[in-house]
Recover the amino acids of this structure.
């Protein structure tokens, strides 16, 4: 690899790491906000437009954030696995809570990964 190629790769890697830091903060903020919104979404589940609102305001932004994580290089994602795992667990909990009609408790793994992600 030439020096120019190595410099470009290092620059790209640094950009990906910076993007991952931003995504970690966004992930932490989204989970905090959506924890409160999920209560309202579950209450309004059986009302007119309740399901559409859940998809628009809760699951849509969560899925969008999941896709943004997958766009990062694998080497960077490995370093932020706690944030990715927390987001995936949170998405599952949100969907399961909405289907069940009650807010399900947070798992131990979700609590631990969320705490680790919020430290970043």
């Amino acid at each position: 690899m030439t020096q120019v190629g190595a410099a470009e790769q290092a620059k790209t890697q640094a950009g990906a790491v910076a993007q991952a830091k931003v995504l970690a903060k966004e992930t932490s903020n989204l989970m905090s906000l959506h924890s409160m919104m999920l209560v309202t979404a579950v209450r309004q589940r059986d009302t007119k437009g309740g399901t559409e609102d859940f998809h628009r305001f809760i699951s849509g932004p969560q899925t969008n954030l999941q896709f943004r994580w997958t766009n990062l290089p694998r080497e960077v994602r490995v370093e932020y696995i706690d944030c990715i795992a927390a987001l995936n667990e949170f998405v599952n909990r949100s969907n399961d809570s909405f289907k069940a009609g009650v807010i399900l408790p947070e798992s131990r793994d979700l609590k631990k990964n969320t705490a680790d992600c919020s430290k970043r």
Notes: The chain has a mean pLDDT of 90. The longest helix spans residues 3-43. The two ends are 33 Å apart (CA to CA).
